[in-house]
Each structure stands twice: as structure tokens, then as C-alpha cells.
Amino acid sequence: MTDTTALPESAAPAEPATARLLAEAAGRIDAPDVVLAVSRNGARTVHTGGGAAPGPVPRELLAHELGSASKPYAGLLLARLVAQGRVRYEDRAADLLAPGFPVHPAVRRITLRHLLTHTSGLPGLPADFYPQAVPRWSTDPYGGYPADRVVRAFLRARPRHRPGTRWHYSNFAVSVLGHTLAAATGTPWEVLLHQQVLAPLRLDATRVRPGPEGTEAVGHRRDGTPVPALDTGGFTAAGAVRATPLDMLTFLEAHTAGAGLGDPGPTGPELTDPTLAAALAEVRRPLLRRGLRHTHTHTLTWFHHPSPYGPVLFHAGATLGQQAFLGFRPDTGFAVAATATRRVHRADTFVATAYGLLTETP
Question: Would you call 148 exposed, middle or buried from its count of C-beta atoms within 10 A (0-12, 13-18, 19+)?
């Protein structure tokens, strides 16, 4: 139940070697639905497969939950607002969210940059998130924790570390960033993301809420049981993006288009906007190091690793029943978008397979 095609968007027919590579890689992933899509300077090859019978809508045209792979979209939004002069990376979140509200001194020092780069000192999730989430951990852990509760948790927080001193991955922090940008611009997050990122990049099949029936990929538990669409509650900025694999490629191609490789991605007057070009360049730039001997590098929003073909920038994500991977090589114009409709488990090969495509494909 597989198919490998050169998409109409491709500048050239699918290379047989690339098609075989994707088919072999898909065979290592156990999921009802698998999509592996690559772009080489705008020439696209997409392989679809999985253990379930394909439905009436091709898998690459269904919107998939990106989970934490939503964060590069939040990062590009922040970078563009900074380029437009509407906010600054060093703006303090509490001052924008609740001017004059008494907060802990460490919270007062948390900036927009801290929130996005996981250096705010905040935990992964608010402490009071777990009592309401645990009873429905496998069905709807986030839906009962709305936006106003995320903001209140931030304003009363006691960061574990002084902001800017340690890296700790935090869905809480990136969610706060979303609410802060909405407050700073007077624009709801969903509208802001559409205006600043989705519309300019022509990501017409990307959204933050489930679409009409039949347009969404269905996630599955480890045993193959379907799960309902994810409700992210107040954590929208950290994990609510839904996109088709083709739109995911368009998003990645925009990043490689700004790296001196021509314009393999979407075209049009919107992409000539200097603030968008500046934002795309900014999110590619190595920004911080962490870990033993500072061996782990990050940009504003991407994980940054070396490879035989130059640096690779990537982010993975998972929800209750789906997984996603986004990655690109700015030096070569190569990009990988991958999705799978089964919940992650200990022996899962999805991320390793997608990462291998990104780092090992000539």
C-alpha cells in the first residue's frame, strides 16, 4: 500500500534513486499512514505508505498534527515581528502581558528570546497542569487548561534557574510566547500566525484548528486504535499547527530559498518583503550552545547539527497519535518532511529514519 510520485510542484521528474530510498525508509516505519517527502532545490519526491488502506484523499493532502514541530512556525513569526520593529527579542514578557502586575524578579527578567530558546528557567509544563491532565492523559490532557490559565501560571511562576543561564525544553515557555505576542500586537495568535507566516508563504493547507471532515489525518494509539484530534488548550503556540506534508515542504523550501540557492519555494511579491527575508535568515543563524562541552547547537528555533553535507536544521514533534519531522540543509537546498499516524513508543524508528534521510542522503 505504497506510492511514490513526483509532485506537480516538482521542477523535474522524481529520481529513481530517491524514490527507492524513500520506499526503503518507509518500510522501516510501523504506522497506519506514513508520508516521506523530500525536496532537492524545489524538485519534490513524495512516498506514501503504511499499514492501513489509503483513503479517498491522498495521504500527502491530509493535514497532520505537527506537535512540537509547530515551534519553528512560532519562531519565524517572532523573527518577522522583530524585523518589522513591532517587538524586540529583549522585551520582557511580563511587561507585555500584564504591565505593572507584581511578579517574581526572575519572571520579570524573562524575555521573548528566553521563551523561544528554552532558556527562561520555566519548567516543561506548569506545575498545576498535571492534576487535571493525568486522568485523561491518553485522550485530552491539554484541552482543560485554557489560555488564561497558562498566563496566570506564568505570572505566578518561580523559575528554576536564572533566565538565560540554562537550557530546558519547555512547552510552557513557548506557549507563553504566543500569548505575549498576541497581547503585544492586539491580534489573536491564530490571526497573527496567518498574517505573518502562513499567508506570505502561501501555506494554504496549514492551520491551527482541525479542518472539515475528511481533510485531517487520523492518529492512532500504539495498538492501532484511532484517537480524536488534539486539542492543545492554551498551549497553541507550542504545538497546534496542522499541515499537509506538501505545505510542510513549502515551509522548508522558503528557508532554503533564503540561503543563496535561488528560489525553489513559493514565489510572489510577498517573499520579496525584506522583513520576511530577514526573519528566514535569522532563524537559520546558530545562536546558543548547551550540553557537555557545549556540543549541542541551536538556532532561534531549530536544532542544528553537522552532517557530511553541511549543517542540518530540524525539529520533530509528536501528539497523542501522530508524529512529524521537519528538516533542511541550507547549504544544499535539501529538505525532508515526514509524518506518521501512530503514537511514539520506545522502539519507534520514525525520527531516526527521517533524520537519516536528512543527514545521509547525498
Answer: exposed
Q: What is the pTM of this model?
A: 0.94
pLDDT tier at 294 (50, 70, 90 boundaries)? confident
Those residues whose C-beta lies under 8 Å from the C-beta of residue 34, and which sit 6 or more positions away, are: 26, 47, 48, 49, 50, 59, 338, 339, 340, 341
Whether the CB-CB separation of 122 and 172 falls below 8 Å is answered with yes
* The predicted structure's pLDDT at residue 272: 72
Q: Is pLDDT larger for residue 8 or for residue 190?
A: 190
Query: Mean pLDDT lowest for which of 6-15, 22-31, 226-235, 249-258?
Result: 6-15
Sheet strands (E) in 70-171? none
Q: Are 244 and 207 in contact (CB under 8 A)?
A: no
- 95 Cβ neighbours under 8 A, 6+ residues apart: 108
Residue identified by cell 519572571 is 107
pLDDT of residue 262: 38
**What pLDDT digit, counting tens, does each position of 191-217 carry?**
999 999 999 999 999 999 999 999 999
State the virtual CA torsion across 51, 340, 329, 166 in degrees, nearest 10.
-140
Nearest to 150 by CA among 260, 236, 230: 236
Residue 167 cell numbers, joined: 537550557
What's the per-residue H, E or C state across 205-263? Answer: CEECCCCCCCCECCEECCCCCEECCCCCCCCHHHHCCEECHHHHHHHHHHHHHCCCCCC
Output the CA–CA distances (angstroms, integers) from residue 84 to 42, 114, 185, 240, 329, in the order listed.
28, 20, 12, 25, 27
